[in-house]
Amino acid sequence: MASISIRCPSCSATEGVVRNGKSTTGHQRYLCSHCRKTWQLQFTYTASQ
Q1: Residue 34 and residue 43: Cα distance in Å, rounded?
Q2: Terminal-residue alpha carbon distance, the chain
Q3: Total domains present in the chain
Q4: Could you tell me if residue 49 is inside a domain?
Q5: CB 8: neighbour CB atoms within 10 A?
Q6: Max alpha carbon distance in the chain (Å)?
Q7: Is residue 39 situated within a structural domain?
Q8: How far apart are CA 42 and CA 26, in angstroms?
Q9: Which ranges carry the InsA N-terminal zinc ribbon domain (predicted)?
Q10: Is residue 15 part of a domain?
Q11: What is the DSSP letter of 41?
């Protein structure tokens, strides 16, 4: 099984990044346990980026 290292866009941490449910459009959300910020990698609308 392959694993993907996801970096927090706020604090740049790679350790402690966990999945945090899905958005209303079905995209995966992530949570950084260091800075407690949430984000998603994909957006439905480009204005959200």
Answers
A1: 23
A2: 30
A3: 1
A4: no
A5: 20
A6: 34
A7: yes
A8: 10
A9: 1-36
A10: yes
A11: S
